[in-house]
Amino acid sequence: MTTAASELASSWSERLGEAGYRASHAGLAIGLGVTLRGLMRAFTPEEIRPPDPKAGKALVERFRALLDRDLENVRRGFYPRELLFQFPYLTYLRRFPENVMEFPRIASRKHRAGYKELPEGVDLSQYPKYYTRNFHWQTDGWFSRRSARMYDLQVEMLFVGTADIMRRMSIPPVVEATRHLSSPRILDLGSGTGRFLLQLSRALPQARITGLDLSPFYLKEAAETLATQPHVALVAENAEATPFREEAFDCVTSVFLLHEVPRSTRRTIAREAFRLLPSRGCFVVNDSAQLQDSEDLKAALEGFASTYHEPYYRDYTKDPVEGVLAEAGFEIASSETHSVSKVVVGRKP
């Protein structure tokens, strides 16, 4: 095959792959969206509201832009093409029945406002007060393997199959900040079940990555997810006061953590990230969109807190991440929205 023919074949293969990627995520979005709405209609009908046309149009446009950006990130070499197709269909399919059975429990708990219903045998005195509740009305809160096992599928249902894509938007600024290092040291705060760590480790196989989370149960789930990634360590600690020395990491990340904590805790976490970084080190925060940059999603953002029991979310939407990082001493290098998320990069002077 000639060079020209080889390049043409490669180009067509890439285009077909991109078309398949778009088609699969469009189908996934429709399927998960219909499923979630059906479950809500069955178990929490009071939460079904007439769709807001403006927000609906904005969400569709943001969905398409997110897919475009994901493909562009691969073209620019920020992460391998394999990450476009890593959605764990079979794993989630096996866990789907258990997740469906969780919906009536969620509806019942929401009806009786049982946000303090947590499993017996857990010493809650070891955890911050704000943490000892069942976020999202989910059974056991952050305090069981069962909760950890169901979490990722629940999040993908909520974000119609785009949660991992939005997490990937954190990778380019990490790659940019560490490309001059042969073995960068990266810390992820609030790493949960390890979905972001899995993608980050594949994008930066030479990096030494540490995931930190308060829940030992979610970290056990993460250990299974990351079993094939030899350079990822997991630590059960509080992001407000980590056990690491000053300037221990070249980059610190936080993915969907800040909206789960009170206003003062966001600032404590940002100050801790500042302490852990050297001069010119970066703190990459990926979290929910906020009112200041997503006015077109105002109705959706305001309804999310009450529907999914996010006690600190409403305040988060009015507390710009850029301001939180600036108060801690960071210079704001960039701030971008990606679908219903945003990525803010702070650099230590």
Describe the structure in your own words.
The radius of gyration is 20 Å and the shape is globular. Helices cover 49% and strands 12% of the residues. Residues 4-10 have low confidence and may be disordered. The protein has helices spanning 3-43, 53-75, 89-111, 145-158, 163-168, 171-178, 195-203, 216-225, 263-276, 298-307, 313-317, 321-328, and strands at 185-189, 208-213, 232-236, 251-255, 282-288, 331-338, 341-347. It has a seven-stranded mixed β-sheet, with helices on both faces. Helix 3 packs across helix 4 (145-158), helix 4 packs across helix 8 (216-225) and helix 9 (263-276) crosses helix 12. It has 349 residues and is α/β, with parallel strands linked by helices. Strand 1 (185-189), helix 7 (195-203) and strand 2 form a beta-alpha-beta unit. It is built from twelve helices and seven strands.
List the main descriptive attributes of the protein structure presented here.
12% strand; seven-stranded mixed beta sheet; 349 residues; 7 strands; alpha/beta
